[in-house]
């Protein structure tokens, strides 16, 4: 009994195995049908810009379907891109020419104009399949973000591996308001907003 | 020599050890014996939970429970690529999605999703939540980074970590931790739960091997999960952190405690029976003792109790008598009395023992003594041995051989029998230790100690109890002990020499066997101490 008392007395704070079900198991998020209801979008908070005018224009994400069609119809008919950027008046592509690794061509699509192709240069950036892009997603993202931040604009959507940080291949979306840069929003190709960086 | 009682001190120590072992097993049953004493100020505990999706994505939730209601600034670091970062259910902005500072109170729950941490192979999948930065672990790539470092108001000390990993076929999951020790785990059908101590409230990382079927959405890579695990371990080695696997079972088995109790009960019961037996022996001895109050009966014990040969009488008396004695010397004297052996000389330091080629003993032990004196001469010849070299160059071997012959003779006469419990005590003690090691979690070191020390104690307690006296043997012993007491009152016997047997006759043989003729015993015994 003395031994037992000593053993119990010296044992300290007891730690018990959690009962089954005692620890809630987290579940994965699902993609909302309306991207403006993306939960992570709540992390994007508008700033007070009263009395200030925003000078930037929204990125023309609605141009993407036509731009992709034009690119596919071009002489090179590329299948892999290393970069896709959507601005207010253009959609810029950088693609791997004829499947040659490192041989890179930049192309700019502007509505109502012929597509402009630059001279091939060396670029060994990581590439991704054009077919992985869902053409209508960027426009939905722009609409959702600008609904969350009525006094802000999405000025640029960039899709390339290096600006995707550790998220895999995601859209890196610049959001500005009248005070300047507001946030970067990261969204997967299917439109899931995975992170907001307002720093 | 035969029928010696269990030695009390080692027996008591052994019983105490085994009792504590059994008690700990019961304390262990159905509960976690995991304890810690150096509690980190400010932090009551950490909870980590995750579920693994078919495509290998993790949904992770890390909970901090504070031991006060103070506000704590939490510098949040989550693994690269973490998605949907939330604190207490509220999505938050984070630099690059992985770093933020929030103020929390009482509790804080950080949740996120994490793709790309599971790699599938044909024979298993590897979940890796561990990275090394040159020579130290990258805490933000693990389960959680050092809470003491990134949470304001948390002091030095240890913290308990409670966890759950939800994955199909969870009972096949093998967890290994860095920074989390003394881990216990238990698997349900779809969830592996664990608990451990984060010493120093530092970073905790984890590597887990999952069944391949748990992530069917991932493409299986070449190689094996064992190779991948070995590679990860090699990569993490510069951190210097050891891997800790969960103890199994997570808590003591009730069956282990029951087995230990039964074994302990059996040992205690055996000890009680032995004590009762001893009491019975004493009672028989008292019955055989003369009526000391009636002087007329005082010399009852001067009568030789039975016709038992002196060697067997000496063996039965065992430790119940004092003084140098030798059953071998007694046998030689008995043979001398019957003219089978002869002595010449009159100096006990140097005399000659001779024996004809046809010398034979009347009992197996007498024959064994004759054979021993022949020193394996074949064919038998007349022998002459001069003291002190009666037994050749290896008297210890002779002693051993004669000891065995004596035991055989005593068993044949049904004076002793094997003590099964005594023979079982050593393996039983080892078995109890092994059961405690495998069936309990608390006090495994103590169980190892008992497994090593217990058998030695058991051996010490019952070293001479492999044989016990039968009822007939105990009765004989009681009578011969009394006879030995009477013999020791005779000073002439104490000073007698071997050839005095021609004067004293058989009584000298009895005296040599019962410790009443030490001089004779010393002269004739093969044992250096003059005791057989």
Explained architecture:
The complex is a heterodimer of chains A (199) and B (532). Chain A is an alpha+beta fold and 199 residues long. Chain A has helices at residues 2-9, 64-73, 137-148, and strands spanning 13-14, 80-86, 91-96, 103-109, 116-117, 121-122, 128-129, 152-159, 170-177, 180-188, 193-197. Chain A contains three helices and eleven strands, in the order αβαββββββαββββ. The termini of chain A are far apart. Chain B has 15 helices and 23 strands. Chain B has helices spanning 8-28, 147-150, 225-236, 254-288, 310-317, 327-337, 364-374, 395-412, 420-439, 444-462, 471-488, 491-495, 501-504, 506-514, 518-524; strands at 35-36, 43-52, 58-66, 71-77, 83-87, 90-91, 99-105, 107-114, 118-121, 124-129, 132-133, 136-137, 159-166, 174-178, 181-187, 191-198, 205-210, 243-244, 341-347, 350-355, 383-386, 416-418, 467-469. The longest helix of chain B is centred in the middle third of the chain and has 35 residues, at 254-288. The model of chain B has no long low-confidence stretch (mean pLDDT 85). Classes of the chains: A alpha+beta (199), B alpha+beta (532). β1 of chain A pairs antiparallel with β1 (35-36) of chain B, so a sheet runs across the interface.
